[in-house]
Amino acid sequence: MPKILIIRFSSIGDIVWTTPIIRCVKQQVPDCELHFATKSSYAEMLTANPYIDKLFLLGNNLSELTQQLAQEKYDYVIDLHKNLRTLRMKWFLSGQKFTYNKYILERWLFVKFKINKMPNSHIIDRYFEAVAPLGVHNDGKGLDYYIMPAHEIDVNTYLPMSFQQGYVAYIIGGSEATKKLPLHKMQELCQKIALPIVLIGGKEDIENGDKLVNLINEQNKTLIDKQLVVNLSGKLTISQSASVVRQAKITIGHDTGLTQIAGAFHDTIYSIWGTTTPLFGIKPYTKNSIVLENNHLKCRPCSKSGVPTCPLGHFKCMNELDLGKITFEGK
Fold this sequence. Notes:
Blueprint: E1 3-7, H1 12-17, H2 19-28, E2 33-39, E3 54-58, H3 62-70, E4 76-79, H4 84-90, E5 96-99, H5 104-113, H6 123-131, H7 155-158, E6 168-171, H8 183-191, E7 197-200, H9 206-219, E8 229-231, H10 238-246, E9 250-254, H11 257-262, E10 268-272, E11 288-292, H12 316-319
Parallel strand pairs: 1-2, 1-4, 2-3, 4-5, 6-7, 6-9, 7-8, 9-10, 10-11
């Protein structure tokens, strides 16, 4: 019985991208025992995954986790993080090691000089290249996200009555300001949506979410009793947010982890891009991934993972993003 370890410590989107690998390794390597190592803060994303036999969690002590993993005597170690920390860890682990191509030079050329030498493939395809020596191939079944019963949200009791016939989940969060629409563009987007809207983000998005609620409802005073917008930013765990997204009719999101999770539940995802680009191989992994981006700028991408402010000061990638061609009817 081969014993296999997969390593991916962070972050939300990157972890959900590993789920096809987890499933295919478990199903295609006969009688394997599959372990996974990630940060403790992301445990809820993987605890309910039926293909993982044992989950190891990294707190503040890498050496302690490394010692635990070394005792397992692995036959294969699949490093899907590939940084100095995982390189150090693998020195102490038994078994044959596999990893993937991060295309660091190509990303740097793209960001620094706008020379695109990136492969025309999703990062998940690169993950599968790492496990190909084990005879593992992509089964084409997409992402997995398993939600523990304690994290399921009953929208019939959690959301207003007007939302129970269907709603749009708008993921307003993002790790950096340049990965998020400014407030006036968020308002423009919300005005195009015919269904009630649930806003989802982190604690840092509460203020913008509350402003959006006030702006949209103020413009629709005659319908205020229907509560057109609800702000759940900062109120939910990762999996609770995933539960709300799963039950939405439509999901729209910035370049952020929960938008990637949405690909596990919906065939169509609308994703919004500013400083970053899906050409890094990171667009939502689903059948119909609809990308909203400003392709009329020579300054994009200006970052591989987002920056606090626009380096040129104009933020045209978001401020001039054309939302006029997009309609969200909830059909």
